[in-house]
Amino acid sequence: MNVFEQISHAIHVPWVALSAALSALIILFAGLRVHSAIGAGGGVLPEEGFSIRNVLEVVVEQLVDLAEMTIGEDYRKYFPVIGTIFLFVLISNVMSLVPGLLGSTSDVNTTTAWAIIAFGVYNFVGIKTHGFKYIHQFMGPSIWNPKIGGKTWHLRLLMPLFLPLEILLHFARIITLSVRLLANMFADHLVVMTWIGLVPALVPAIFLGLGLLVSFLQAFVFALLTMIYIGQALEEAH
């Protein structure tokens, strides 16, 4: 049973929109909670014990370090998008482990939407950084770089082969990002729900633990691939 589907029938709003809205509200609540904790005098000192702020700070710190290594010194410009993607996907994935709920990442529309957002972001970054020269990344390697009239010209003889292939492969990233997340989470949640229905609490608890791990890893992989694509878009074509 999916609670969101029951509500959907009553208010005529797609269940995936309700699930996504709840994920967004959770992110907003967590952000406001951390902001209020810092504003209340916490400053840079961590809170005692287990808290939302401590958990978020640990996760964000690890993501920031990874973004800096993957993207480079300009990582701060793009981290808000990466962090949002990671948190939304993670919360939606974990939501599906709660009996009666179904995270929006269990629907192809959500995974495809985030894939399109990631695709749009890294291509926007590439165009903004390099302008028209961004297309050079799709034209294959430069095999001869003569200097004529004080200007270096890049001869890309394999461009007719590389250009259509690279453009196709870049658009295929939308499909791979979307399907990877959707398929992995569908398989994981199917296994967890099957064991919950078949055996007592002990064995399902083990699979719930594995489900949490898979949920985190899939959110991490989605964010990591987005970082890699942005880093590649920032590089100069050779």
Overview features:
238 residues, mainly alpha, two-stranded antiparallel ribbon, 7 helices, 2 strands, 2% strand, elongated
Protein architecture, described:
The protein is 73% helix and 2% strand. The chain is mainly α and 238 residues long. The protein has one domain. A hairpin with a 2-residue loop joins strand 1 and strand 2 (151-152). Helix 1 (3-11) crosses helix 2. The chain is elongated. The relative contact order is 0.13.
Q: What is the SS-derived class?
A: mainly alpha
Number of helices: 7
Number of domains: 1
Helix-strand topology string: HHHHHEEHH
Portion of residues within helices: over 70%
Q: Biggest sheet, open or closed, and with what strands and sense?
A: 2 strands, antiparallel
Would you report the number of β strands?
A: 2
pLDDT averaged residue by residue: 82
**How many angstroms separate the termini?**
54 Å
List low-pLDDT spans. Answer: none
Strand order of the largest sheet: 1-2
Radius of gyration, CA atoms, in whole angstroms: 22 Å
Strand content of the residues, in percent?
under 5%
What general form does the structure show?
elongated
